Amino acid sequence: MGPVLGIESSCDETGVAVYQADKGLLAHRLYSQIKLHALYGGVVPELASRDHVRKLLPLLRQTLEEGGLKVSDLSAVAYTAGPGLIGALLVGASVARSLAWALEVPAIAIHHMEGHLLAPMLEEPAPGTEPLAPPFVALLVSGGHSLLVGVDKIGSYTILGDTLDDAAGEAFDKTAKLMGLPYPGGPALAKIAETGDPKAFKFSRPMTDRPGLDFSFSGLKTQVLLAWRNSNQTDFTKANIARGFEEAIVETLAIKCRRALAQTGYKRLVVSGGVGANKRLRAQLAEAGQREGFQTYFPRLAFCTDNGAMIALAGSIRLAAGQTTGPEILVQPRWDLQTLPEVA
Ligand code: KG4
Ligand code: ZN
Question: What percent of the chain is helix, strand and coil (3-state, nearest 5)?
């Protein structure tokens, strides 16, 4: 099986990559629209779509060049078909479907969260670690999702826990914003939290006092708002609040991951999605894994946030299973992960 092109354009990152089953990742490029949206404090969907139109083809050319490839070398074109912003998705889908049509190769519509979930497979396993294979539990934490997924086979996904309100990344972003930090708030908040005192502010660990695997983060944001309003609002206090908030989110996520592992009996945990780039979350879960006998798998930092590599990889796996998409330009802004076909 030859190289598979992957295109990601579901939100504010244009990602293009080429993956080949027997050779691994051949090339990848990413263009982030952060600067474009920062001015507005969040993603403006129409601007996102237009920027994908501007950037996708040049990025595609650069990626092929980086891999020493011609378009005619491609065996298939995979693209993010959802969930995401409809206009942004349509840009990637139209380019991918047209290119596949012109090359007379299959197109493969990929679920964005499946991309995140499989992303650790882009990495060499750590020394002494088995390569990632199902069954495993995946914690997928991004700007739009906070999911605990039971992966019994590739393509066979059970949602074990979901957020009742804000996603973890959204909670980071909103909390950062209310303390005046720039968009996207997650990385900015995590950065100032590094100098904060973890004991200065103690916020609650929502929904950990009752059984179940669902999350709720919007109350935490309100707790931070009150703490911030009632404080002296210095940089020192901001760092302390940021640290207290980060501790609360990380510990809540870690508690639920351990519960999900206990519930399923699985011994492997994948952590992925933008918040999976959070260093404290990675460290706390890796430590818990060593202590409690489960193996943790993380993509490299650049592949936690949106990227084309995870889409090319998922496409390559689906292609090998003969699962390709028809001639239509298919996008699904809302798409239940549990409805995907199983990979035999
Ligand atoms: O997966 P992603 O790139 O896009 C979505 O599919 O949503 O995730 C972006 C989210 C944003 O909310 C961002 O603030 C958060 O991930 N994020 C972080 C960190 N890096 C990115 N949150 C906490 N700590 C980080 N280091
Ligand atoms: Zn994402």
Answer: 45, 20, 35
Cβ atoms of 111 and 151 closer than 8 Å: no
Taking the centre of ligand 2 as the mean of its atom positions, its distance from the CA of residue 306, in whole angstroms, is: 5
Q: In the chain, what is the greatest distance between 2 CA atoms, to the nearest angstrom?
A: 64
Question: Under DSSP, is residue 108 helix (H, G, I), strand (E, B) or coil?
Answer: strand
**Identity of the amino acid at 143:** G
Per the listing, tokens 């906070």 go with: 146
Write down all domains in the chain, each with its CATH number in brackets. Answer: 4-118+303-339 (3.30.420.40), 131-298 (3.30.420.40)
Is 0.90 surpassed by the pTM of this model? yes
DSSP letters of 132-157? P-SSEEEEEE-SS-EEEEEEEETTEE
Q: Nearest bound ligand to CA 173?
A: 1
Return the axis-axis angle of helices 235-264 and 218-229, rounded to nearest 10°.
160
User: Both tokens of residue 290?
Assistant: 């060593």
Tokens, residue 330: 């298919």
Q: Which of 243, 275, 280 for mutating ligand 1's site (highest number of atoms within 8 Å of CB)? A: 275
313 CA distance to ligand 2 centroid (A)? 15
Tell me the per-residue pLDDT of 76-94, one tens digit each, with 9 for 90 and over.
999 999 999 999 999 999 9
Does ligand 1 lie within 6 Å of residue 196's CB atom?
A: no
Pairing of strands 268-272, 136-141: parallel
CA–CA distance, 238 with 302 (Å, rounded to integer): 27
User: Which amino acid residue places its CA nearest to atom 24 of ligand 1?
Assistant: 278
Alpha-carbon span 158 to 177, nearest angstrom: 33
**Burial class, 77, CB count within 10 angstroms (exposed 0-12 / middle 13-18 / buried 19+):** buried
pLDDT digits (tens, 9 = 90+) for 9-34: 999 999 999 999 999 999 999 999 99
Q: Which helix (H) or strand (E) segment is 280 a member of? A: helix 279-292
Q: Which residues face 78 on adjacent strands?
A: 6, 108
